[in-house]
Amino acid sequence: MARIEGFRVKNFKVFKEITLGRLWNQRESEPLTHMTAVIGKNGAGKSTLFDAFGFLADCLKNGVEEACDSRQRGGFSRIRSQGQEGLMYLKNGCGKGGKDKEQGGLFHF
Fold first, then answer.
1. Nearest to 53 by CA among 108, 92, 95, 109
2. CATH architecture type of domain 3-108
3. Where are the domains positioned within the chain?
4. What is the pLDDT of residues 10-64, one digit of tens each?
């Protein structure tokens, strides 16, 4: 069964760049565990982290423009980190375990 071993988010809301776990091209990092807890103070970005997954799902299901405007996101200019001019991207590392080939995905916006 495939599972998310890691991901990177760049220029998404408060995240200028964050990497958690192991990406497909970074074998030296430890993967996320089967159960990963997200803990932090108010305003630290916990909800933003999960909205990045929701945004990606909305993009794949409904298209980028609709995803930017849905769930009170307020459009692309409010999603991209303030003051940043570069691309926003979400990158994941997925593993199937065993001898199956590991895969990853990169989504630029």
1. 92
2. 3-Layer(aba) Sandwich (3.40)
3. 3-108
4. 999 999 999 888 887 777 888 888 888 999 999 999 999 999 989 988 988 999 8
